[in-house]
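Team,

Forwarding the record for the chain on the shared tracking sheet. I've put the sequence and predicted structure together so nobody has to dig through attachments.
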Amino acid sequence: MVSVILPSLFALVGLASARDVPSNVQALYESVTSGHCKNKLASGFYNWSYCGDHVEDGFIYIQGKKKGQLANMDIDCDGAQGGANKDDRCEGSTDTQSQTSFKDTVQSYDVGITDLDAFYHPYV
């Protein structure tokens, strides 16, 4: 959960002109954006890596090859919708797309599904 909140928190740091940013939040932001990931949990995703530099603090993040580059971890409900276990978590979404960019890859595995489904396949 914290891995989803972190990029949003970092965005707020840049927008906090009317308020002081807590020193611990500022220090965390600076430590993450001032260098490269030292503890890559997984790599090879178009120059991006899952970074575990703060895993002992309870979160991971996705960092690019460029110094300080962070991924926008947009959590949404794209992909297959309305299966047997459909729930209502995505019904209020205004930006849901009917397919993911992985649809062709998923179909190539020939495992009986046409695309990723947010109900079964969480982002991280």
